[in-house]
Amino acid sequence: ETASLERPSSATPSDPGPWPAGWRQVGRLPGVTVGLADSGGLVVGRDLWLFGGRDGSGPTAKAWRVDLGTGVAQSVDAGGSGPSARIAPAVAYDGARSRFVLFGGIDAAGIGRTDVWAFDVVTNAWARLAVDCWGDGCPTVTGRETLRVSALTGEPTVIAARGGSGHSEIAWTLHEGTWENLAFGLTLRRESAALI
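User: That's the sequence. What structure does it adopt?
Assistant: Structure tokens below.
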């Protein structure tokens, strides 16, 4: 029911309040009645953007924008089709192209999604950048990945969650529609100046 910058470990998404220490209410999300958890979130300027997550009925594909100054929250009505419902997607802002890039997340069946989407903040429209990819030539999805976008090329790079199995030292860049794995600390460090 509320958007929050911090979620203390003592609170649950459906906690009606009064909220424990650490919560700061910044706005009510339209259409969310029992809480929202595990969304991909990012602050750009004075706006908090939330993508996907889990509400009272399970994973959602919705998006919201919350003005942190006024607390006004609105559901973002994106034109066309967009990403399927998912929790814990990785989100990055590509300021050079005025878009958010979304990777992965876990769907309602518990399957990690490897598709990549871009949300244009000017037109409020989604565009698919890559379809789901399966097997060794693709990033592994745990719901704890970090996403960066090259300011020069617009290419997304997924950095595996530390402490994960097997792929914790690998980053993946989507280059011309194909995933390329990078040895963490070698290629990624050379490219870091172009990552935002």
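Helices lie at 187-191.
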